[in-house]
Q: What sequence folds into this?
């Protein structure tokens, strides 16, 4: 049985898992969960029974259901060791994890769809205020990433050496979000160099927004 990935075409977290599955060459079936239609399909009783967190992604391998993108990605790396998504050295693994967490834990959650909706519907923020919030936190995070990656000798063609891995998996979806909001990307030459290398690879291209069966738009123009 092919694993099922409950996904939404523009979800950054689901995008990460799609990239990882593609890099591993694993066959999988995408089950679309629309985060807006019908009040949000992630809020349906059928989906909540599988994933009480009411978020995507969710990976169902027929025996187990795993949520949280980083947990899913490390699980995939453990059940299929090649190509490795984490380096072999403990200190390098810690460094890679720390930058991946900078993106997946610090940047993404405070600017994702449910937070932005809450700002508008519950706090009463205007669309302009919501956009200001979004760009502020994205910029804070990306400024930090640019400094870290721009100064580290471990950066090669990709974020760690010359093989795509966990940092790249997290970085590309976040840059899709930034570019889609018309952010000025000129302050981030290192991030964009890595991004452009990643987007030459089928694993990243095939995981992108416009390639999804539930896609409702194209990739942002770089």
A:
């Amino acid at each position: 049985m092919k694993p099922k990935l409950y996904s939404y075409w523009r979800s950054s977290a689901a995008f990460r898992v799609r990239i990882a599955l593609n890099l591993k060459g694993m066959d999988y079936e995408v089950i679309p969960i629309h985060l807006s239609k019908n009040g949000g399909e992630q809020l349906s009783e059928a989906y909540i029974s599988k994933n009480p967190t009411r978020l995507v992604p969710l990976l169902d391998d027929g025996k187990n259901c795993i949520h949280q993108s980083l947990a899913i990605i490390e699980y995939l790396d453990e059940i299929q060791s090649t190509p490795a998504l984490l380096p072999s050295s403990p200190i390098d693994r810690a460094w890679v994890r720390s930058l991946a967490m900078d993106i997946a834990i610090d940047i993404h959650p405070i600017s994702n769809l449910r937070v932005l909706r809450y700002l508008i519907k519950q706090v009463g923020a205007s669309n302009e205020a919501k956009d200001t919030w979004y760009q502020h936190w994205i910029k804070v995070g990306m400024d930090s990433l640019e400094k870290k990656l721009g100064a580290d000798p471990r950066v090669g063609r990709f974020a760690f050496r010359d093989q795509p891995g966990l940092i790249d998996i997290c970085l590309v979806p976040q840059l899709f979000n930034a570019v889609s909001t018309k952010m000025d990307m000129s302050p981030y030459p290192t991030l964009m160099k890595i991004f452009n290398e990643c987007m030459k690879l089928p694993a990243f291209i095939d995981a992108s927004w416009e390639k999804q069966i539930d896609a409702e738009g194209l990739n942002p123009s770089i």
Remarks:
- The two ends are 37 Å apart (CA to CA).
- Residues 177 and 215 are 15 Å apart (CA to CA).
